[in-house]
């Protein structure tokens, strides 16, 4: 069986795309099988799946097709040639870490709140306005607004007092390893940079809020390698680094802090910057590991307005080579 047949005949590909796509959003497929030579059957199957899911075909131009996803899920027929049905009402389409691809179509109504195209504010208002999905957390709107203010204050301190190159052409690719609501990314949204917001898989699922803000992000378990090319990021930021490897229930470490920092070193560009916020005890551990991987580091006090015992660790990755052996 051809790969195209596998994806389109049983609709697995389209079901997952549908789960990811916001109601009222657009799906653009360019290339095979759209009006592609010797792929008439695959192209017909793709169109049939789209019709079954009630997608509106907006345009076909050459080998490019554009569909619009409906705003509701009530139009899915009970019987269709693909055997598709709506997922159970208890299904949560936001659960996506180590889940197999589903054989059912996620209900739009399964996600509480207004998140369809046209229902959320336009950019740039959407980055500062609390999305309705934030209300799924207790006191979510208040937490969201406090988090936004906190990171605006912290980033201002980073730029003014820590001399980070945020806002300059030197920093383009940025990662926040413990993003929560994406407050750090929102605080630098006017800078010439983009941020990969990482929501740890064992922490509250806030990725939907990040996307509602117009930001991007992923789930990840930091006891595993991050799927990216080495030396990718110019700046990596993490608040509460030890919490990334600690089990929320037992409070015990699931993996080693050394391994996590070696992974940070792998994905950080030579000359890149690491910013870590944590307790003095954790920062002391971080400093010893940083010395071993040859980072140049300094430790700073937190901004005056912040509470708690945090210290701020700032390090730069050196570009170094193993000494050449003499013969």
TrEMBL record:
EC number(s) stated in the UniProt entry for this protein: 2.1.1.-
Entry keyword set: Glycoprotein, Methyltransferase, Signal-anchor, Transferase, Transmembrane
GO MF terms, alphabetically ordered: methyltransferase activity
Gene Ontology CC, one term: membrane
Record membrane topology: Single-pass membrane protein; Single-pass type II membrane protein
InterPro entries found in the cross-reference section: Put_SAM_MeTrfase, SAM-dependent_MTases_sf
Predominant cellular place of this UniProt entry's protein: membrane
BP GO terms, sorted: methylation
Localisation: Endomembrane system; Membrane
Similarity comment: family membership: Belongs to the methyltransferase superfamily.
Protein name: Methyltransferase
Species of origin: Ilex paraguariensis (yerba mate)
């Amino acid at each position: 069986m051809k790969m195209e047949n596998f994806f389109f005949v049983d609709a697995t590909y389209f079901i997952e795309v549908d789960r990811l796509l916001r109601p009222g959003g657009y799906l653009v497929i360019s290339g095979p099988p759209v009006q592609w030579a010797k792929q008439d059957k695959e192209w017909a199957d793709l169109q049939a799946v789209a019709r079954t899911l009630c997608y509106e075909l907006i345009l076909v131009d050459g080998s490019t097709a554009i569909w619009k996803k409906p705003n509701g899920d009530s139009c899915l027929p009970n019987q269709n040639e693909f055997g598709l049905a709506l997922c159970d009402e208890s299904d949560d389409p936001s659960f996506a870490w180590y889940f197999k691809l589903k054989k059912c179509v996620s209900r739009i109504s399964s996600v509480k709140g207004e998140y369809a195209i046209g229902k959320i504010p336009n950019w740039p208002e959407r980055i500062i306005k609390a999305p309705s999905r934030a209300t799924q957390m207790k006191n979510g709107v208040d937490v969201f607004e406090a988090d936004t203010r906190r990171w605006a204050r912290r980033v201002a301190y980073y730029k003014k007092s820590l001399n980070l190159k945020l806002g300059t052409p030197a920093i383009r690719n940025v990662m926040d390893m413990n993003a929560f609501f994406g407050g750090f990314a929102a605080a630098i949204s006017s800078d010439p940079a983009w941020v990969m917001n990482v929501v740890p898989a064992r922490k509250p699922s806030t990725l939907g809020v990040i996307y509602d803000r117009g930001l991007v992000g992923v789930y990840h378990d930091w006891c595993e390698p991050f799927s990216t090319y080495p030396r990718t990021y110019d700046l990596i930021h993490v608040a509460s680094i030890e919490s990334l490897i600690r089990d929320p229930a037992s409070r015990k470490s699931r993996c080693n802090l050394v391994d996590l920092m070696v992974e940070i070193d792998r994905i950080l560009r030579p000359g890149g910057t690491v910013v870590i916020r944590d307790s003095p005890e954790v920062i002391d551990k971080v400093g010893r590991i940083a010395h071993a991987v040859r980072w140049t580091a300094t430790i700073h006090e937190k901004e005056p307005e912040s509470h708690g015992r945090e210290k701020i660790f700032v390090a730069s990755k050196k570009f170094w080579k193993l000494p050449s052996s003499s013969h």
